[in-house]
Amino acid sequence: MKKLIGLLATSSLVMLAACSDDESSSPAAPVDSGSSTLVTPELCQSMSMVFYTDPTTGVSACISPVQSSSDMNGTLGQSSSSLDALPALSSSSDAAPVAASSSSLAPAPASSSPAPTSSAPAADDTPADDGLFKIGLWDGSKGTNQVPTGNKDGGYWYSYTDKGNKGASTLEWSATAAVGSTYSDDDLSPIIAECGGLCGKFNLVAGSNEDCAPYVAVAFNYGKTDKTAADATSSKGICVTYKSTMAIEVDMGLGSKDESYGYNLPAYVLDPATSLKTVDIAWSEFKQQWDGAKALSGPEAAAMLAAIKFQVKGSAVGEDDGEGTFLITKVGAPGQCGE
């Protein structure tokens, strides 16, 4: 502690000498921690000053002859901004050299590292799938290939025929952008953009199909495939704007549960129409098409709905029904297609 007091006293003497305007009243010669010159009586005498040793700290310095130690102590703490102009001396005491840097006593500088930021990804604007089949308006004039269903992976239009049942029916797109394929991996966007909806030409040919009447169809699922089902009760039904030279059967697909109902699923038959026609259909209007299978109402099917299918269907098993055309321009919940 004594050594530290001595260092502070010597540093204060340096500052006092620098800030004084009257040389005769300068209390002491400055001490530079970087000098190797010792403060001795001879040195002080050569400067017409008095050699002084602090009895408490043992620090020696050259002081003015007219300055007492009490006067010197009274001026401790004064400061200077011109130390560089003064001669450099060092203490002859065995105290720690004034050369010791005071920076070691200063608080550590604040970190320059930026404040941590969250690494969490940005919020996704797509609403979370709540497990409900919520049919929104699809308008073919917009050129999109996806019906809103409440599932971001669902709602994409696809087509199929009775080929899997050994039928020979065909479906061709009535557009110059026709892709020529009738399988579920079609991208129907070019057709929709050109026709303002789904525009097709069909030929119903029974072939060797012995299980059902010939058919072609377009459909969309709630999810990525028809294996994913959800509750569509809140949609209350569907609407459709269409025209067709033959009736279109709108089927409620249940995916993996289709077979347990003998494929006798609730359906609604749209009459042929030569001009665009809009129809609202409540779930309660969907009925099974024949007797003898496990009973299932439209509202019951809506609670476990996987797909909506639009089938252009023949009149009887084993009979050809010829050619025709259809156009579907809108699908949505009841009331939306008229908007």
List the topology elements:
Elements: H1 2-19, H2 41-46, E1 50-53, E2 60-63, H3 69-74, E3 138-139, E4 158-161, E5 170-173, H4 189-195, E6 198-204, E7 215-221, E8 237-244, E9 248-253, E10 267-270, E11 273-282, H5 298-302, E12 307-313, E13 322-332
Antiparallel strand pairs: 1-2, 3-13, 4-7, 5-6, 6-13, 7-12, 8-11, 8-13, 9-10, 9-12
Overview of the molecule:
This protein has helices spanning 2-19, 41-46, 69-74, 189-195, 298-302, and strands at 50-53, 60-63, 138-139, 158-161, 170-173, 198-204, 215-221, 237-244, 248-253, 267-270, 273-282, 307-313, 322-332. The chain is α+β, with helices and mostly antiparallel strands. It folds into two domains: 2-101, no CATH class; 138-332, Jelly Rolls (Sandwich). The strands form three sheets. Strands 3, 5, 6, 8, 11 and 13 form a six-stranded antiparallel sheet that branches. It has a five-stranded antiparallel sheet with strand order 4-7-12-9-10. A two-stranded antiparallel ribbon has the order 1-2. A hairpin with a 6-residue loop joins strand 1 and strand 2. The longest helix is centred in the first third of the chain and has 18 residues, at 2-19. It is rod-shaped. Residues 1-36, 68-124 and 181-185 have low confidence and may be disordered.
